[in-house]
Amino acid sequence: MNTQKLVDTARILVAGNKGLLAMDESNPTCNKRFARLGIPQTEEARRAYRELIVTTPNLGEYISGTILYDETIRQQKKDGTPFVKVIADAGIVPGIKVDMGAKDMAGHPGEKITEGLDGLRDRLAEYSTMGARFAKWRAVIALGDGLPSRGCIEANAHALARYAALCQEAALVPIVEPEVLMEGEHTLEQCRAVTEVVLRTVFNQLYTQRVMLEGLILKPNMVLPGLTSPRQNTVDEVADATVRCLLRVVPASVPGVAFLSGGQAAELASARLNAMNLRFKSRLPWPLAFSFARAIQQPALEIWQGHDINVKAAQRALLHRAKCNTAARCGRYDAAIEKDR
After folding, report:
1. How far apart (Å, rounded) are the C-alpha atoms in residues 88 and 82?
2. N or C: which end of the chain has fewer CB within 10 A?
């Protein structure tokens, strides 16, 4: 294990007030988003959309790393240039999603277990030769009546830790993503309590599996009320609850925390990240960054709609959202920035 390489890469991923762009949607997920906008659900359409993203001018000013999908890391621009080269030439670190998705967990109705450990060592070696320098694994935790169970939390935490250990063996920085889902009627406090238990269990497993904390990035959910909760808390209340939760369980040796957006509206995700940094940045042991997918991509996708004539306008929208989230890392995001397109 090349410990210095891991530490250096992890630090790069959260340096300079930048963040991660997650463009690792599986083909079925990408196709669903295309279908809603009338975009053809084809490999070429997916390739064209991803080319739009990776060729966005000046993207490296705001994005430190990008998470790719297996299909994407093998794709090229129309002129034959591999996407990995385009990304690296822009000063962005290429990464790869390596889990095989969340499947129904046997004996646990309503809960999921993420699969993909079988053959992972060989896949990591291949991705490394293709230029990936970090990887991502997502575990999903549902919150509801009697959920989550202890069995679900422990099984997913163990899988995350085994994945992380294998990544570090291959000199790839693991992005550890335990996501407490937004769906449901739960309160902010219920989400905070479950998120704390999940993160505590994950770090216990990381320690047990001898994962070097200095060489990973945590990608957690923000602490949020359920989407259908009667009370939707203020931006400041979300910031307070999230930071309080992290301070209780995330070791200071972790190089950075890069939040997932989890389906939040783009502007709201930026506002919540901004509130955390504005109120707490000087008192935190780790930087609070972003690792957003839809919260950066969705405006661009809606503009593009599969038409070449819309590429430049879509790229401007993508760059705008990246710029807004960099401002949020500095605690300088506001309505004026949203208007500055």
Report:
1. 10
2. C
Boundaries of domain holding 39: 3-339
The answer to whether residues 46 and 30 touch, using CB atoms and an 8 Å cutoff, is yes
Residues with active-site annotation: 177, 219
> Would you say 257 and 287 are in contact if contact means Cβ atoms under 8 Å apart?
yes
Helix axes 120-129, 150-169, angle to 10 degrees: 40
Q: What is the CATH number of the domain that holds 220?
A: 3.20.20.70
pLDDT tens profile 104-162: 999 999 999 999 999 999 999 999 999 999 999 999 999 999 999 999 999 999 999 99
Q: E strand or H helix at 44, and its extent?
A: helix 43-54
- Do residues 186 and 230 lie in contact, with contact meaning Cβ atoms separated by under 8 Å? no
The rounded radius of gyration (Å) of the Cα atoms in the chain is 19
Whether the Cβ atoms of residue 270 and residue 237 lie closer than 8 Å to each other: no
Q: Phi and psi of 84, rounded to 5°?
A: -60, -40
At 19, phi and psi to the nearest 5? Answer: -150, -175
At 179, is the secondary structure helix, strand, or coil? strand
**For the segment 267-317, what is each residue's pLDDT rounded down to a tens digit?**
999 999 999 999 999 999 999 999 999 999 999 999 999 999 999 999 999
Backbone angles phi, psi at 111, to 5 degrees: -120, 160
